[in-house]
Design brief:
The protein is mainly α. The chain is built from seven helices and no strands. Pfam families: TMF_DNA_bd. Keywords: Coiled coil.
Length: about 425
């Protein structure tokens, strides 16, 4: 933007120099009837005062004012002695002073308002040059229509927000809100594109119109310069041709500036879209990575649960084998007890037979043996009872443990499913 502003400032300074290049040396003998010098000076003074008060005037207004002054000076043409007329010298000094003030104002205003440096898209009003050619009026263009404001999107909260951060909003409501927002965004984007296309078409039409008027003005100035006699009119025609060429150059510069601004806007929009796409891709990659990590953690937990379940199944099988061994041991103990009972009965029968048959020492010895056998039998019976109780308690514990392990294995299988 800096180099465009400098180029426009240079163009304005060149235009000021062309405007300040007043023709001199032309003398006339019989001027036509003109208004008085005091009236002309009063008009010029009022115009200059209004221009200075207005501050920074546009390029076309300055050109129109300078052209009108030149036309008035050309039509005035008083009788001079020894070269230039006195009014021409005064006008030249006054124009130089005004040109310097305008250049200073332009340099001060460049930093404040960069948009005022651009030439307005309307050619200056061409003053009446000859009775055969009517004046070309400044084209009247309608102001561009004001762009409608973007629609306001108001999202009303659905549900009360609790203090712990949870919102009482269902998933369907959120999806509906997101869908509505996307539709509104699509409509806004379509409206913006339509408005930008309409503005671009209007700008192109105005540029074509300005280009046509500038060419027409340059051609008219060139024809006037070719057909004008030497002297003030020829120089004025050449100055007008230079003004038209400078206007055309300014129009080209403004067009280039507009193209550069549009290119910069497009590049910025593209960069923002690329940044958004990159950020969205990063978010998706992070989300996918997080989901992959969660899936790995779930798979690891599932493998660990499966290992635990297999270990529990193995423990249950081992407990069943132990219970089976204890059952076999119990059966063997029961068989031993039955055998001992049989022996006891046999010994008892023999003792009774011996007691009934013989009343001798042998009988006494047999009794002693019977008593010992009874004691042994009682001891064995008590041991067998204790062993049986111990085995039964172990069997109950093993059954309870098996039931607990079976319930845990069933719960783990349901969790794995």
């Amino acid at each position: 933007m800096n180099f465009l502003q400098k180029g426009l400032a240079g163009l304005e300074s060149r235009l000021d120099k062309v405007l300040l290049d007043e023709p001199g040396g032309q003398t006339t003998t019989t001027p036509p009837p003109q208004p008085t010098l005091q009236q002309t000076k009063a008009e010029e003074k009022a115009a200059n005062t209004a221009a200075v008060k207005a501050g920074r005037i546009s390029l076309q207004e300055r050109l129109a004012a300078a052209t009108a002054r030149k036309e008035r000076g050309r039509s005035r043409s008083p009788i001079v002695e020894d070269g230039e007329p006195v009014e021409s010298l005064k006008d030249k000094d006054k124009d130089k002073d005004i040109g310097r003030e305008k250049e200073d104002d332009n340099k001060e205003g460049d930093g404040r308002d960069s948009s005022s440096c651009k030439p307005e898209p309307s050619p200056p009003t061409i003053a009446q040059e000859s009775p055969a050619r009517p004046p070309t009026s400044k084209p009247v263009t309608d102001p561009p229509p004001a762009l409608p404001p973007p629609p306001e999107i108001i999202i009303s909260p659905r549900g009360s927000l609790e203090t712990n951060g949870y919102a009482d909003v269902s998933h369907e409501d959120l999806e509906t809100t997101i869908t509505l927002l996307r539709e509104d965004l699509t409509l806004c984007e379509a409206r913006r594109q339509e408005e930008s296309h309409a503005a671009a078409e209007r700008i192109d039409a105005l540029e074509d119109k300005i280009r046509y008027l500038a060419r027409e003005s340059a051609e008219a100035s060139r024809q006037k310069a070719n057909g004008a006699p030497s002297g003030l009119e020829k120089k004025l025609a050449e100055a007008q041709e230079k003004i038209a060429l400078l206007l055309e150059e300014g129009e080209k510069l403004s067009k280039n500036e507009l193209k550069l601004q549009n290119s910069i806007k497009k590049l910025r929009t593209k960069a923002q879209e690329e940044e958004k796409a990159t950020a969205e891709a990063k978010r998706r990659a992070e989300r996918a990575e997080k989901e992959a990590i969660d899936a790995k953690e779930k798979a690891k937990r599932a493998v660990e649960n499966e290992k635990r379940a297999s270990e529990r199944v193995k423990g249950a099988v081992r407990l069943e084998s132990e219970v089976e061994g204890l059952r076999r041991e119990k059966e063997s103990s029961a068989s031993v007890i039955a055998e001992l009972k049989g022996k006891l009965e046999e010994v008892t029968d023999r003792a009774e037979d011996a007691e009934s048959r013989v009343q001798t020492e042998a009988l006494e010895k047999e009794r002693k043996v019977t008593v010992e056998l009874k004691a042994e039998i009682e001891r064995l019976q008590s041991e067998a009872a204790l062993t049986e109780e111990r085995l039964q308690s172990e069997v109950r514990d093993l059954k309870a443990k098996m039931e607990r392990d079976t319930e845990r294995a069933r719960i783990m299988e349901e969790e794995l499913k």
